[in-house]
């Protein structure tokens, strides 16, 4: 399957509950992660993360699906055209 480059936006509403689970998943998929940045937005009570990835659509779908299934976590992904 063809590798694709993309970005995943992750919004975490419950930092203490969800962040350890998010970090564990990102570690599990570390082989497709190019880089990541996370910023706490304390005024709104959310954490915002951006993760750059390079993987197959199956890998990217598996990661975003697992992230999106976590309570208090919202994800959106963007892939570059071929």
Give structural notes.
The chain has one domain (about 5-80): Alpha-Beta Plaits (2-Layer Sandwich), CATH 3.30.70. About 30% of the residues lie in helices and about 45% in strands. It is α+β, with helices and mostly antiparallel strands. A 4-stranded antiparallel sheet has the order 2-3-1-4, covered by helices on one side. The mean pLDDT is about 95. The chain has 2 helices and 4 strands; from the N terminus they run βαββαβ. It starts with a strand and ends with a strand. It has helices at about 15-30, 55-70; strands at about 5-10, 35-40, 45-55, 75-80.
In the CATH hierarchy, the third-tier topology is known as: Alpha-Beta Plaits
Radius of gyration of CA atoms, rounded to a whole number: 12 Å
Alpha-carbon distance between the two ends:
12 Å
Kindly report the name of the CATH homologous superfamily: ACT-like. Chain A, domain 2
**Integer average pLDDT:** 94
Indicate the structural class. Answer: alpha+beta
Number of helices: 2
- Biggest sheet record: 4 strands, antiparallel
What is the CATH class name? Alpha Beta
Query: Strands of the biggest beta sheet: in what spatial order?
Result: 2-3-1-4
- CATH architecture, by name, is 2-Layer Sandwich
Low-confidence residue ranges: none
**Share of helical residues:** 25-40%
